[in-house]
Amino acid sequence: MSSPGSGMLSGFTKLCKGLAVILIGGHVVVQLLPTSVTYLALIPARTIPFGWNLITAGYIEQSVHGVVVSTLGLLFMGKLLEPIWGSKEFLKFIFIVNFLTSVCVFITAIALYYLTMQEKYLYMPLSGFHGVLAGFLVGIKQIVPDQELYLLKIKVKWLPSLMLLLSIAISFFTPESATYLPTLIFGTYIGWIYLRYLQRKPESKLRGDPSEDFAFSTFFPEFLRPIIDPIASIFHRMLCGKSEASSNPQGYTLEGAPLLGSDPIEASRRRERGARALEERLAAEKLAAGRDSEEPHIDGNDHV
C-alpha cells in the first residue's frame, strides 16, 4: 500500500536522482576530509592553478542545510523542467549556468579585493548549488509564469525576483552574505541569458525566447520597467546586434543574420506545454492520493 503523499514524492527523474547523489556525496567528502574544500570549492586566490574548481564548486555543499535545500530543490524543480527540456538540455543548462556563475563570482571576488583590500574575498571558500537553483526558478518562470502557488498566493513568475529581494534583505544582517549573494544574483542572470538567447529546442531547431513576457524588465515591478528597459536594451544589442526583437517577428538577429529559434510562437507553445505538463502531474498526484484514501483497510479478523 502506498502512503499518503507518495505521488508528490514520486516521479523524480534518474538524472536528478544521480545529481542528488553527487551533491550528497560531495557534502560527505568535505565533512570526512575537510582539506578537500581547498581543492573543490572556489577559492579565488587559488583558482589559478586549481581552475577545475570553477566547475566542482557548484556541486559542493559545505553545510547540512545547504545540501538539504539543494537536493530537494533539484529533485522537485527538475521533476518539472527535465521532461519539458529533455535530459540533454537539462544537463547542459546546469553545466553552463554553474560554470559561468562561478566565473562571474570569481571576477567579483577579485574586484571586491582590489576595491576594499580585504584578503577575505580572496580566501573564502565559495561553493554550493544555489546558483543553479536560482537559474531553475527562471526556467519555471518561463514555462508556467501565471501558475499560482497555493500556499504563498503568488504567481510563479515572481519567484526569482522575490528570492533575490529576500536574499539582499538578509545580506544586511549576515556577515557571510558574500558567500551566497553573488552566486544567487549571477545564477539568476546567467539562467535568464541562456534561456532568453541561447537555449536550442531540438524539436523545432529554434533558439531563445524573445517574448515580451520573458523580457528582463519582467523581473521588476511595473513602475520600474520604463527605467529598466533602456538599460536592458544595451545588453540586448550586445547579444543580438542593433535590431529590436519586438520589430522582428522572425526572431533575434546577430550581425544581420537571424538567430534560429527566437520565434514568439514557439515561446508560447513552450509555456503551453509547461502548463499542461504541470496540470497533468498535479492531476496524477491528486488521483494517487484519492486512491490511497479510498483503499479499504484489511483487518486481520476479517474473513469470508
UniProtKB/TrEMBL annotation:
Bilayer disposition of the protein: Multi-pass membrane protein
One protein family per Pfam: DUF1751
Subcellular location: Membrane
Keywords from the named record: Membrane, Transmembrane, Transmembrane helix
Region (Disordered): 253-274, 285-304
Cellular component GO terms held in the UniProt record: Golgi apparatus; membrane
Domain of life: Eukaryota
Residues that span the membrane, as ranges: 21-43, 93-115, 121-144, 180-198
InterPro entries: Rhomboid-like_sf, TMEM115/Pdh1/Rbl19
Protein name: Rhomboid-like protein 19
Taxonomic source organism: Gossypium stocksii
